Model the fold of this input.
Amino acid sequence: MAEIPSRRALFFGMLQVALSSFGGGLSAWSQRIVVEQHRWMTDEEFITGLTVARLFPGPNQINMAVYIGARFHGLAGALLALAGILLLPFSLLLLLGLAYFYLNMRMAVDRVLAGVVAAAAGMALSMGFKILDEYWRDAVALGFALAVFLALAVAHLRLIPVVLVAGPLAMAWYWPRGAAAGEP
Done:
C-alpha cells in the first residue's frame, strides 16, 4: 500500500524533484523520488499518472505534479505540488539565465552545459529501462512502444498525429472488459 504524503511532504517532495532534475531528466527523478524514495505511488500508478500527464497540453512534469498533488489532497494538493515544482527552480532559472547572459562567451560554460545534457539523457534512458522492466512480459505494450518509437525516431512523423492514433488504440486495447472490470 502506497503511503499518503502530508501536504508539507508533498510540497517538499515536488521541490526535491525539481531541484534534483535541474537541467533535465525530470521524469526519471520524479519516478525515483515519488516511487522509490517516498513510496507514495507504485510503478504502475506512476506510469498511469505520467501517461495522463502526457496526454494533456503543457509540460509533462507540471501536469504530473498537479496529478500527484490532486490525487492525495485535491485542489490544495495540486497547488502545493505545483508551487513545489515551480517556485524555487523558476527563481534559480532566472538567476542562471542572467549569469549566462554575462558569461556565455567563456568556453567552460559551454562544456558544463554539454555535461548536464549528457547526464539528463542518461536519466531519461534509466527511466525508460525501468518502465521496460515493468512491461517486459506484455508483448502488446512493447509493440505499441516499438511502433511509436519507429514512427517518431525512424519515420520522423510528428508527435501529435502519432499520439492521436496510438493513444486511442492503446486505450481501446487495455480498456477493462467484462468480469476483469468488476462487472458481474
Notes: The chain has seven helices and no strands. Helices lie at 7-20, 26-37, 43-55, 60-103, 107-135, 139-154, 159-174.
